[in-house]
Amino acid sequence: MTDSREILLTNDDGIDSPGIRALYDALSEVGNVTTVAPADDQSAVGRAMTYEVPVEEHELGYAVGGTPSDCVVAGLAELGPYPDIVVSGCNKGANIGAYVLGRSGTVSAAVEAAFFGVPAIAASLHIPQSEWPRDTTVEEYAEVAEAVRYLVERAPDAGVFEQAEYLNVNGPLPRDAGAVGDRGGADGGVRTPMEVTRPSHVYDMDATEEDGVVTLHDQTWGQLEGDTLSDPEGTDRRAVFEGKISVSPLTAPHTTERHDALDDLAEQF
Description:
Number of strands: 11
Helix content: 25-40%
CATH class: Alpha Beta
Order of helices and strands: EHEEEHEHEHEEEEHHEH
Organism: Halorussus gelatinilyticus
InterPro entries: SurE (IPR030048), SurE-like_Pase/nucleotidase (IPR002828), SurE-like_sf (IPR036523)
Number of helices: 7
Number of domains: 1
CATH topology: Stationary-phase Survival Protein Sure Homolog, Chain: A
Family: Belongs to the SurE nucleotidase family.
EC number: 3.1.3.5
Strand order of the largest sheet: 3-4-2-1-5-6-7-11-8
GO molecular function: 5'-nucleotidase activity; metal ion binding; nucleotide binding
């Protein structure tokens, strides 16, 4: 990288979360970082938009009383220099599997940027279900933040965003990582390997009803703590399960597939 990049940083956990601080510190080494992030927790809001939101200055940039998508639009159109890349995260909890992509506020911020034609990276840290909920520290995000810094510095010039519109990055907690390789990690040790993946299609949701209340249960997270995993090689869930940093290159618009059967139905209507 020859010139410092303009980076717009956001998240869905809120501007005071340790994950966004870890990314701010790492990305400040390779670019000018403008932070425009929700003032409070906006997890799992998807691409919801508020349209009219209050804004306050913050030591990291701007705190917005709205959603991650609000923050991206505000950052691109008004609050900061137009960025070379948008980074969202680092989220407390993984965003892996095809089914979470539309739910996640972290990923949705990257999708919002992609619709503007701006390359983006969403980043998340897997927290085992047995440890949820718990507080996290800036240091625990350092390895994923280092991976994102590496991608911000190198992916645009390597032509990655000529094929992908955004990258979805997920990493394990440092103590869970089965690190191999010969490059130093964020703590000076061996760096956790990075694997290019595709979103897993495993989906295991159910619901129970008691006293007029229906509770939804996402069983997919518990599977990550077992001895085996049904997800095939090359998927994001498999990579994180094996202690690797998963990077899924994705596109924002839904793909349209023409089918003869549907063409026939339309003609007969």
